[in-house]
Amino acid sequence: MKFIRIFLINFLLLTVLQAVGIAQDLAQIMFINELDGKRVATYGDALRMLRFQVGAISKSYTYLDKGYFDDLKLTKGMISLIIAEHLELKQSFMYRIFRTERYAYRACVAENLFSADGNENDLMSGPELIGLFLKVNEFKSRR
Questions:
Q1: What is the distance between the alpha carbons of residues 45 and 31, in angstroms, rounded to a whole number?
Q2: 99: left (phi > 0), else alpha (psi -120 to 50), else beta?
Q3: Region 45-55: what's the mean pLDDT?
Q4: Burial class of 43 by CB neighbour count within 10 A (0 to 12, 13 to 18, 19+)
Q5: In terms of Cα–Cα distance, which of 21, 128, 27, 29 is closest to 73?
Q6: Cα separation, 22 vs 38, whole angstroms
Q7: CA-wise closest residue to 81 among 117, 42, 108
Q8: Which residue, among 64, 108, 110, has the nearest Cα to 83 in the 3D structure?
Q9: Residue 7 and residue 63: Cα distance in Å, rounded?
Q10: pLDDT-based confidence at 65, cuts 50/70/90?
């Protein structure tokens, strides 16, 4: 199990760093290793992971207007808003109208980014956040 976790972390690092076009940075590797040990990830962790994948956040994402802070515990609904905006998910009719955590989460479930056995109020752990961004990379490569 430990070998699989190390393999997934290294795979994520390689794909994120290749997508951004940056040589491996020691600070990023240390952050991923630290995130892997967290029982509950924070909103700041999610934004940092998004910056690794995108490079710089240039869009005016919906979540910026929600009043979230970097040290706030991360829920599946909060990360769903980030992911739904980043991937421009438009399949969910209710999400297109309301753009709330609930419907963003449901849009992510419909795209198999989350399993259907949770809800938008569940807290995300560090390894779950890393796994989610692996799924986001796979989703982007299928498009």
A1: 9
A2: left
A3: 85
A4: buried
A5: 128
A6: 25
A7: 108
A8: 108
A9: 31
A10: low
Average the pLDDT over 43-57 and give the result.
Answer: 82
**In one letter, which amino acid is 128?**
E
pTM, rounded to two decimals: 0.76
Write the CB contacts of 98 (distance below 8 Å, at least 6 apart in sequence): none
Q: How far apart are CA 59 and CA 119, in angstroms?
A: 26
Which residues have a Cβ under 8 Å from the Cβ of 78 and sit 6 or more positions away?
43, 46, 63, 66, 68, 72, 101
- Would you state the structure tokens that stand for residue 41, as one six-digit string? 């990830």
CA gap 138, 95 in Å, rounded = 22
